[in-house]
Amino acid sequence: MDVKLHDIGEGMHEAEILHYFVKKGEPVKNDAPLVEIQTDKMTAELTAPSDGIIGDIKFELGEVVEVGTTILTITTDQKEPSPNLEPTVKASPSEASGGVATQPATRTLDRWLPMNRVMASPHTRRVARENDVNIKNVTGTGRAGRVLDEDIFAYIEAQTQAAPVAEEKSHQDEVVIQNSKEVDETVQTIPFKGRRKQIAKKMTQSLYTAPHVTHFDEVDMTELLHLKKQLKEGTTRQPGISISVAAFFIKALQLSLEEFPIFNSKLDEEKEEIYLESSYNIGLATGTDKGLIVPVLKNVENLSLVEIHEQMKTLTKKATENKLSGQDLRGGTFTISNVGPMGSTGATPILNYPETGLMAFHKTKKMPVVINDEIVIREMMNVTLTFDHRVADGSQSIAFTNKFIDYIEKPHLMLVELT
Amino acid sequence: MTTAVQVKKLTMVQAVTDAMRTMLEEDESVLVLGEDVGQNGGVFRATDGLFEQFGEERVIDTPLAESGIVGTSIGLAVNGFRPIAEMQFLGFIYPAFNQLMTHATRMRQRSMGRYTVPMVIRAPYGAGVKAPEIHSDSVEALFTHIPGLKVVIPSNAYDAKGLLIASIEDPDPVLFLEPMRCYRSSRTEVPDEKYSIELGKASYVKEGSDVTVMTWGAMVPDTVKAVEKFEKEHNATCDVIDLRTLYPLDKDTIAESVKKTGRVVIIHEAPSAGGVNGDIISVINDTSFFYLKAPIQKVTGFDTPVPVYSLEQEYLPSSEKIISALNTTLSY
């Protein structure tokens, strides 16, 4: 039976092989995990469609496989392996040493260990670490392939002999070793694949397809922060509600987009149509340790501020834990990038293609501002709107941004618009 | 060390008596109480002669009520005495468990340090002397789980005297467990004079470099014999550590030895489940995990009550089992 890479539901057409949970010749149960793959946006596990024995594994780790390709095969007509799988401990350590561990022992123990797991005692691991040895590179000669202290020392010796370094330590030797380390660092590489590659692809496509214009403005946040504080304080009869500033941004954006729907649209060049979206699905550009990802907050027009706040929290948590589903990532109509908390004062963001607009919020800080010919201190924030100039014009972007600014600077205006 | 002082060769039970006599002589607040500890001299003669020497006001026969003995001791201790309560067997202490758990060990905290409970409960315990049911229980782990209660177990006469004196002088309650098998099985040189051994300190019975063997109580002499046999058969040497105090454990000595040898065998006659072996492994995990060369081995009694005396030897960790565990760790 062929186990193929199937479309796991987000219109993907290829995925990278990250990790195999099984090895050739191993028995496998129905629904047991077989392989972990990395799609453009997430990692997923493919599971066994039936009981059987793993046949051919057709791809190496790191290879990119197209949807519909057979990744591995499972033989189902063979009998289940007989359960004589207890670790074979008959071989004495001396018999097993020197890399001639009996095959049954190796196979049996491997069955219970994830691939690439090195068997070694904590002591041996410490010896390896203290000697800067990557234990994965050491061949174990102990029982069932266990790495022994001696193997580490043998490895170090082999490495030392291979390297043209003098035997005894001297100042000169230390310099040589240091230099060789420096050389290593310069040739260090990071594989350009997975999410990083996908981000790059998408950014390039966006930048080279849509003529970007970025419009800058500033927003007086004082009133909004005041309102946020009041909400948090509550009353003597009712406890406070904590709502993030970003939730207000999203609500204000949705209300502004209703008035300027061109920024909630997509251009279909082939059909020569600009498609105005009927719902307001706000993408939240979220940085994770695996790279930028944009989960989507759906139908903001139906959500209260509190609901926006809660759902946003859930999505960003899922993003940082790499648990977003395909559903979470689809259907965005406009994207925001809230970089202010990290400290930005301005940027020229790239559109989340094929969307038309992206708004970024920057750092809020106290600034001297002239109001009624007097210098007063206000909480000021820069805001940038990047838009696709094929679809919208500068004047529209200014009007749209002004609307947004109005809602933020006078948050009570939002009240009458709320459904 | 002992050349300048008078030394006698004593059995462990004699050393226990010697320690109590020493403290009764030195400190008027020290009392002995328990069933038949007076004229009768105690079930194992541990209080032999004390009644005659110190009288019925300081060596007190009590009714057959363990809860009463411990409860009375708590009251005495809180009021300035230093009672030494005797349980006839550790297996009889269960009625007094409530007193220990809810009062003796909590008084210091409950009174925010105003009162302490300086009392000792002595209890013979362990299998191997062909005693009837319950008499042979080795349930030390039940007591190491009670915060505030020190649990001390000597394995020879010298330690018994020094540890018991330290226990009597300790400001908090101490459970002093006396392995019955050791009472009269050997004699050790014991100084006449008063001396004490710090609680919470293990001792090296012998030193080696390949395996750390940890044990206590009556298993100490058995372990030493097995280890000596093993060392003769193999080109290896072992650290044998008598833990002596099970609560608090001597973490420093445990870590020091494990860091040296990287291999560990724990031996105790109590059942394995919930036993002190788990605490020791936890200490190793916290202090010296990265020095381990092999999984920790343990040789214990079975997870059953101590069987009838005809099967007792089957229950106790045998020399063969100890040697087998040593082999397993060394050949890992």
In short:
Chain A is α+β, with helices and mostly antiparallel strands and 419 residues long.
List the helices and strands and how they pair.
The complex is a heterodimer of chains A (419) and B (332).
Chain A (H helix, E strand, L loop, with lengths): L1 E3 L9 E7 L6 E2 L4 E6 L4 E5 L4 E6 L6 E3 L3 E6 L17 H4 L6 H10 L9 H9 L18 H14 L8 H16 L7 H16 L2 E9 L1 H12 L11 H15 L5 E4 L4 E4 L5 E3 L1 E3 L2 E3 L2 E2 L7 H16 L5 H4 L4 E5 L18 E15 L2 E15 L5 H16 L2 H6 L2
Parallel strand pairs in A: 12-16, 16-17
Antiparallel strand pairs in A: 1-8, 2-4, 2-7, 3-6, 4-5, 6-8, 9-18, 10-11, 12-15, 13-14, 17-18
Helix pairs in contact in A: 8-9, 8-11
Chain B lengths: L6 E4 L1 H15 L3 E5 L15 H5 L4 E3 L4 H13 L3 E5 L10 H8 L2 H4 L9 E6 L14 H5 L5 E3 L4 H13 L4 E6 H4 L4 E4 L11 E4 L4 E5 L3 H15 L4 E5 L2 E3 L3 H11 L2 E8 L4 H12 L9 E5 L10 H4 L3 H12 L2
Parallel strand pairs in B: 2-3, 2-4, 4-5, 5-7, 6-7, 10-11, 10-13, 13-14
Antiparallel strand pairs in B: 1-8, 6-12, 9-11
Helix pairs in contact in B: 1-7, 3-4, 9-13, 10-11
Account of the 3D structure:
The complex is a heterodimer of chains A (419) and B (332). In chain A, a hairpin with a 4-residue loop joins strand 4 and strand 5. About 13% of the residues of chain A have low confidence. In chain A, the strands form five sheets. A six-stranded mixed beta sheet of chain A has the order 9-18-17-16-12-15. Chain A has a four-stranded antiparallel beta sheet with strand order 1-8-6-3, with no helix packed on it. Chain A is α+β, with helices and mostly antiparallel strands and 419 residues long. Chain A contains twelve helices and 18 strands. The longest helix of chain B has 15 residues. In chain B, helix 11 links the parallel strand 13 and strand 14. In chain B, helix 1 runs parallel beside helix 7. Chain B has 13 helices and 14 strands. At the A-B interface, helix 3 of A face loops of B. Chain A: It holds the Pfam family Biotin_lipoyl. Chain A: Belongs to the 2-oxoacid dehydrogenase family. Chain A: Its cofactor is (R)-lipoate.
